[in-house]
Design a protein that fits this description.
single chain, 191 residues, alpha/beta, Collagenase (Catalytic Domain), 3-stranded mixed beta sheet, 8 strands, 16% strand, globular, binds zinc ion
């Protein structure tokens, strides 16, 4: 029996187009049947800016996010419009700690179309953001990268890969995800 309802928070970090967090929350409900709520924005992550890379350090943003308790939420997805990096990659669309509570989705590169200065229509932009969010959420529920290129957990190293993966998990990953979501929530021991 489920004693506590699962809840996922979607929280903008700085200014992001309002439709994006709403769409991410709707996708979480629609694909995973888990309630997701959009919270009021937290401050813009200027503290994570790296002047040498002209990008924002994903680890530093995650750390700041972790300093908020978000007690009633099981998982927290921060959505931001700045370009993120982790030391080993040029850039990342998202970042999450495997099996953790907090993840990030960067919208910065998701508007780009094919060709110089081109942009994709809004539905594709929203779909890309939903893919990144559900993929990172998969990591939070301890799913690893999947070798099946027709799976949302397949690693996407660029937009062409992101556009190629579908907006759903393969059979194996779906079972894993369903399993993770059917386990009772951990009792909170602190905060
Ligand atoms: Zn991943
Ligand atoms: Zn898979």
């Amino acid at each position: 029996m489920r004693s506590q309802k699962r809840r996922i928070a979607v929280v903008p970090l700085g200014e992001v187009p309002g439709i994006v967090p709403k769409s991410i929350a709707a996708h979480i409900l629609g694909y995973l049947n888990v309630n997701a709520e959009v919270l009021s924005p937290l401050r813009h992550p200027d503290y994570a800016y790296d002047p040498r890379r002209l990008q924002y350090n994903a680890g530093a943003v995650l750390k700041a996010l972790e300093s908020h308790s978000f007690g009633r939420y099981e998982k927290v997805i921060g959505v931001l419009d700045v370009d993120l990096f982790v030391p080993i990659f040029t850039y990342v669309f998202g970042e999450a700690k495997q099996g953790g509570k907090y993840a990030l989705v960067s919208l910065n590169r998701l508007r780009k179309g094919h060709g110089e200065g081109a942009f994709v229509p809004e539905p594709i932009y929203l779909e890309r953001a939903a893919k990144v969010a559900l993929h990172e959420l998969g990591h939070l529920y301890d799913l690893h990268h999947c070798s099946d290129s027709r799976c949302l957990m397949h690693f996407s190293g660029g937009l062409e890969y992101l556009d190629r993966i579908p907006l759903y998990f393969c059979r194996y990953c779906s079972v894993f995800m369903r399993d993770a979501l059917s386990r009772p929530r951990h009792r909170r021991s602190k905060g």
